[in-house]
Amino acid sequence: MFGKRIRLFSLLGFEVRIDLSWIIIAVLVTWSLAKGLFPYLYPDLAPEVYWGMGAAGAVGLFASIIFHEFCHSLVARKFGMAMKGITLFIFGGVAEMGEEPPSAKAEFYMAAAGPVSSLFLSGVFYFIFQAGLSGDWPEPVNGVLRYLSWINFLLAMFNLLPAFPLDGGRILRAILWGTKQDLQWATRVSAGIGSGFGLVLIFLGIFSVIRGNVIGGFWWFLIGLFLRGAAQASYQQLVIRKSLEGEHVRRFMNPHPVSVPPTLTVAELVEDYVYKYHYKMFPVLDDGRLVGCVTTRDIKEIPKEQWSRETVAEMAKKCAPEATIGPETDAVKALAIMNQTGLSRLLVAENDRLIGILTLKDLLAFLSLKVELEQ
Q1: Of 18, 59, 93, 360, which residue is most buried, by most CB within 10 angstroms?
Q2: How many helices (H) and strands (E) are present in the chain, helices listed first?
Q3: Which pTM does this prediction carry?
Q4: pLDDT number for residue 2
Q5: For 90, which DSSP code?
Q6: Does domain 249-374 match CATH 3.10.580.10?
Q7: Whether the predicted pLDDT of 77 surpasses 90
Q8: CA gap 361, 252 in Å, rounded
């Protein structure tokens, strides 16, 4: 879902990050408030005042989104769920879960925490807005407070729609899950509704563009695409998790991995291994012990004229910890590591002995057969 992310700060153990796509929505929100909403509601103010109100409104909106996702994370932690952090991106924000909720009750309370927090913020900002009116506060201040009360109310209402993976869709899944005690069925139903809702937004966006509302229609179209894709991906991820759950890496690994000796020259490594097997990383074994790894990136750092003189032992580096797992590691965890690191091959080792290599291709082949036979 995310590209390059920047860490902003840590709050009670939760890291708050922004995806670079967030910059797009931050600029658009500021611009739409400064050039559209605030001039319409409060005419005859100076242009720089509108831009100041727009910036303050955008900051308040994204602070509200962080608060919304933070409440999700706190409730999830209470139920023992591992949370990776909070990320702001082009469509708002998301509290990143490392796993599915342990129960329907946990799912319900975690999902409900978001809309409740937004309604709470809406009430707080409305109370302050009324105090500002009574206290004759400057119009720009009251305008921003009014906007934040209104936008948090809309955020709560939108998230309560029963379209997975919106909070309302998660609440629906929790109810279905609790009723039938079948998470996969509940996810399939709620994800189907979410996918259908996304399709409605896509058609609404197209209709809006035809009617002349190009910017609004474009955003409805993008949000619809995102919701539809997220709903379908959520169900697929659950199917993958259920299919691999309880399976150990030992079952999928290749027990006869291609390795290289430390005495090999770089030229021999390239000619006899890289060009033959087309791998970008090779484990280096010395008398059966895993002593390091060599990669094509390491080879590129060595001038070609030195390839015949330099050996693998001289260029090998310690294998990255995230690239090495144990044979009893759960396959779901191994797949998560591949997803997080971008690696398609993991070394399977016991102490300093390499006993196999796990590839994404092998995992997907097993998954494809199991889904075909059992789903």
Answers
A1: 93
A2: 15, 9
A3: 0.70
A4: 47
A5: T
A6: yes
A7: no
A8: 10
Run of H or E including 357: strand 353-359
Q: Quick one: which H or E segment has residue 183? A: helix 183-210
Alpha-carbon distance values, 94 to 16, 73, 90, 91, 366 (Å): 10, 10, 11, 9, 31
Task: Give the Cα separation of 324 and 317 in Å (integer).
Answer: 14
347 three-class SS: strand
Mean pLDDT along residues 69-82 = 83
Q: Pick from 294, 289, 300: which is nearest to 277 by CA?
A: 294
The DSSP result for 197-257, as a single string, is HHHHHHHHHHHHHHTT-HHHHHHHHHHHHHHHHHHHHHHHHHHHHHHHTT-BHHHHSBSS-
118-159 tens-digit pLDDT:
999 999 999 999 999 888 899 999 999 999 999 999 989 988
Contact at 8 Å (CB) between 243 and 370? yes
3-state secondary structure of 326: coil
For residues 113 and 213, which has the higher predicted lDDT (pLDDT)? Answer: 113
| Coil vs helix vs strand at 308 | coil
Categorize the per-residue pLDDT at 1 as very low, low, confident or very high, splitting at 50, 70 and 90.
Answer: very low
Instruction: Determine the angle formed by the axes of helices 139-159 and 104-134, rounding to 10 degrees.
Output: 160
**pLDDT score, position 93:** 62
With a CB cutoff of 8 Å and minimum separation 6, the contacts of 87 are 2, 5, 16, 17, 18, 19, 93, 94, 96
> With 80 as the cut, is the pLDDT of residue 81 above it?
no
Domain ranges of the chain: 1-160, 175-244, 249-374
Q: Of the ranges 29-33, 142-146, 264-268, which one carries the lowest mean pLDDT score? A: 29-33
* Token pair for 22: 């967030």
